[in-house]
Amino acid sequence: MNIDHSEWMWLDEHHEVSLDELMELSGLSLEELHHLVESGALIPNNPDEDAWNFNSHCVVSIRTLSRLKHDFALEPNAFALTLVFLERIRTLEFQLRGLGHVKIEDDVE
Fold this sequence. Notes:
Largest sheet: 2 strands, antiparallel
Helix content: 55-70%
Number of helices: 5
């Protein structure tokens, strides 16, 4: 049985993924990820260094962005805005779960 790397990785703010790992996990190209960083939609933990690292919690949104790119043929110019919206949705869902009064349906993969 082949276990996908992203299935066993602990995704939280205490773990990091490198740019290469993010490329592998998402299926996005280096150019696409650079565009997201340049636009401010994806922020490296160490923006002044040559080898960027990212909080692992971004993996879920980046993978969703990659699926949307393939499913709907998203143009690169739409990547940043889509990623910002995905992150905002995840933040709002997290806040709603914290209230304990609202059940949020999980994403269907």
